[in-house]
Write a structure and sequence with these properties.
The protein is an alpha/beta fold and about 280 residues long. Helix content is about 35%, strand content about 20%. It has ten helices and twelve strands. The strands form two sheets. A seven-stranded mixed β-sheet has the order 1-2-3-4-5-6-7. The chain has a five-stranded mixed β-sheet with strand order 8-9-10-11-12, with no helix packed on it. It starts with a strand and ends in a 10-residue tail after the last helix. The site of zinc ion has 4 residues, from loops. Zinc ion binds next to loops.
Length: about 280
Amino acid sequence: MDSLTDQVFYMNRYPTVGMVITSEGVVAIDGPMKPSDAIEWRDFIASKGPLRYHINTEHHQDHIASNWYLGGGTIISSEVTYSDFLTSLPSVEVAKERMLFYDPECGPLLDGYEIRWPDITFRSRMTLRLGGQTFHLIFSPGHTRGQTVVHAVEARVVFTADNITPGNYPFFHSAAVWEWFESLALLESLDVDWYVPGHGGPCRKDEIPRQRQRMFDVIGEVKKLKDLGLGREEVQERVNYIDRPGLEHPRVLGDRAYLLQKNGVGVVYDALGEHPSGQAG
Ligand SMILES: [Zn+2]
């Protein structure tokens, strides 16, 4: 477990998860994908205080599978994340199958496993006040169309989820491509010391231009092929950025990483046909 201050902790696993301790309990942001990591995280939280709120920043399995393990706490997400919930974890059976794949020893930890849904949802923004601290939950479409970022105001930290992924390739399979750039601008405007990303280690504001560049690199490559007249499927076959040296990609996902990349290239291909400020009229 690592800390940024004596109240802010994070664990850089898959994904990177975070928590803020207040005098009235803990606010947790996401949870680890592997059951054994989730139990380690749950026990660490319990050593610091009762889990009061647990925020799901997106509907992807790696961020929500641990809901059942963390127990306690009221789960909060955006309305869009709630409505997309079953598109990543379609059933308990699939959830268990994937967890066994990622965490082969976890069999005994799967007994009684259930998909736990958010209890409270919000539309554009909500404020939590707990133990003298303020948390702004801001709807920030980007890596997913339902993404939430969590700004812990007094702690001077923002949990960005997968809208920022230092040292990792961006994935677009559920993305709101152009809104993602707007959401980066919002993150850039916050008065914070630290950004805790969805994958990778904590970073500073200067990571945001690098994130933008990583996104432009993928979008530019898709655009180049589309402009040459290649169809959607041809472009999906040709673009393979995750195998290039330099950045990480989620090897823990195995072949699924290629499927997600391919779906993401399709999403970018389609987005190139839209005007960035929306449909005319
Ligand atoms: Zn994700």
